[in-house]
Every structure is written in C-alpha cells, then in structure tokens.
Design a protein that fits this description.
- The chain has about 325 residues and is α+β, with helices and mostly antiparallel strands.
- It is about 20% helix and about 35% strand.
- The chain has 6 helices and 16 strands.
- The strands form 2 sheets. Strands 7, 8, 9, 10, 11, 12, 13, 14 and 15 form a 9-stranded antiparallel β-sheet that branches. Strands 2-3-4-5-1-6-16 form a 7-stranded antiparallel β-sheet.
- α5 runs antiparallel to α6.
Length: about 325
C-alpha cells in the first residue's frame, strides 16, 4: 500500500491521491450483476418466482433454497408496495425486488462461479419487457468492472447519462469485504445476521437461512458458509470462506441506516484484520445517484489506517 495515515482527517486527501486496486482474496472469484429498471408487464409474486426459477436454469445452478417471495415492504412505507424474492443456489444467490410505484425493479445476481452477464441482461430485458435499464457488472478477476460488451451495448452506454430511474424510492446498499480471525460456524453467521438486524432496527421476515454448500462449486476453496435474510425493509446476504478467512456482506435497505455503524459492527463481530466497503445511496449526489468508491481499510495497531480505492460505475441506457 502506498500510504499510512496517522490522523483520520487525512483520509479524504489520501483517497483522492490513491488509485491502487487491492483484492483481499484474489483466489476467490466474485462475480456480480446489479440491475435496476422499469418493467411494462403485470408483476405479482408468481412473476418474481418464475423469473428466479428461469434465472437458475439459465445460470445452470441448482437451487438450494427458495425462491422465497414476500410482499411485506408496505408495512414500513406504502411507497414500497411490491414483491421481494430471494433464492440460494450452489455457490450463488439472488435478490429481486419490485415496486408498483414506477413499475421499478432491482435485481442482484451474485456468484463465485463464472457466468455470462450479457445473457442475464438479455433474459431480464425480455422477461420484464424492460423500457429502461441500468446495470453494474463487477468481476473480481477483472480488477474493477472491466467487462466487455458487444459494440451495440457500448454505443448505447456512450449515448446515455447516469440517472435515477426511481427517485421517490430510497435504495441504500453497503457491500463489505474483509479478512477475519474468529472461528465461524453456522451459528456464528446466523448470530451476526440476527444481531445486525437488531442493531439497525430492521424487521426480520424470513431467515436467516444458513447453508454450507459452496463446496459443490467443484472447488474446495469455496468451502464456507452463506446466509440470506429478508427484512420488511429489504434484506442482506453474507458469505464466508474458511480457507482464506475471508467474508463478504451485502446490506440492502429501503430505510436509512448508518453505514459507518454497519462497518464498525461488522469489524468488531468478525474481529476483522482488513475490511473494505462499497456504499451506494440513491438520494445522494448529482443526478440523485452516487456510487462511492470501494475503500479498503486495513485496521492495524496504533490506528494506522491505509486507504486504497477501487471505482465502480453504473451503466444506463434506454430502449
């Protein structure tokens, strides 16, 4: 790392100057596709369930839990009336959310097995008869989001601006990656997820469901635990890798929460030696969208905190 900070107030300056990319677990593939868009079909719980089942077939991954579909977000705020679906697969998981307001959807496909992102995009566009779509492809093996699409996608990307497809719907997300020193079992991960919910004041409506099936991915490096949990406010999923002592947490909510508190809670629970995060918030910044860079934070003795940043972007276009 290029810089060590003695005083926290120097962090902003170092983040601007530093452009090094650090992968805390280069042996572990993490591939994710986040999609947000507007649909033109009638959507109910069965629709979301059919989408998730067909998605698993397209991915060629066995379903190990779900799809679990709920329609409870409206108990927090009527604006969030819609459906939420989760599904666990061998070495992967998917969260899908739909809102009646604006015919809006948000889908996250995460896997430690490689898959064709462009095929998932095309399938999603056709299934929901999408009128507008933005997406964020990330792949740990590419460094940042260096995924190549065909010329047609690139052309559309170049002609479009980043904007919020649902400005009335709050979406806040924090993705955390780090290394830990504690011994993690099923009960450990379940305890983290339950206590995180209580800490943030979220209402659990399903789960936590914890599985130890990542080893099915035909690579022993993926042995560990994964968990999914639904909140009335949205949900979270978590992964741990036993050999690498590595964890990944994804917190997604339609209710405001304090990102720093999530980071500190997670750091303390896992006794993290190194931790990094990506924070996104639909209400921040120009065009109502801010994608904050990943900030890798190495927690060391004497409060020395080296920062390194990685940039991620959303790609948006009309049809």
């Amino acid at each position: 790392m290029n810089a060590v900070l003695e005083r926290p107030q120097q962090i902003a300056e170092i983040k601007i100057k530093t452009n090094e990319i650090i992968d805390l677990a280069p042996q572990i593939l993490r591939q994710r596709l986040r999609m947000e868009g507007n649909y033109s079909i009638q959507v109910d719980g069965d629709t979301v369930s059919r989408y998730l089942n067909k998605l698993s077939e397209l991915l060629g991954m066995e379903i190990t839990h779900g799809p679990e579909i709920q329609n409870d977000a409206e108990i927090i705020n009527p604006i969030h009336k819609g459906f939420e679906g989760i599904m666990m697969m061998s070495g992967a998981s998917t969260h899908a959310y739909t809102w009646e307001l604006g015919n809006f959807f948000s889908i996250d496909v995460y896997s430690c097995k490689s898959y064709d992102m462009s095929a998932i995009l095309e399938f999603t566009k056709m299934f929901f008869e999408v009128t507008r779509l933005r997406y964020q492809p990330t792949n740990s093996r590419d460094g940042t989001n260096n995924l190549t699409f065909d010329n047609n996608h690139v052309e559309k990307m170049a002609k479009s601006n980043i904007f919020d497809l649902a400005p009335k719907i709050l979406r806040q997300r924090t993705r955390i990656e780090g290394t830990y020193v504690i011994d993690i079992r099923k009960d450990t991960l379940k305890k983290y997820m339950v206590e995180l919910s209580e800490f943030l004041g979220m209402h659990i409506t399903h789960g936590p469901v914890i599985q130890n099936d990542a080893e099915i991915v035909s690579n022993p490096i993926h042995v560990g635990f994964k968990g999914v949990m639904m909140w009335a406010e949205s949900g979270t999923h978590a992964y741990t890798w036993e050999k690498e002592k590595f964890f990944l947490i994804d917190v997604y909510s339609c209710s405001l929460y304090n990102t720093k508190m999530v980071l500190e809670f997670t750091r303390n629970f896992f006794q993290a030696t190194t931790i990094g995060y990506e924070a996104t918030h639909s209400r921040n910044g120009p065009n109502n969208l801010t994608i904050m860079p990943i900030s890798w934070i190495a927690y060391m003795e004497n409060k020395k905190i080296p920062y390194v940043l990685v940039r991620y972007f959303f790609i948006s276009f009309h049809f």
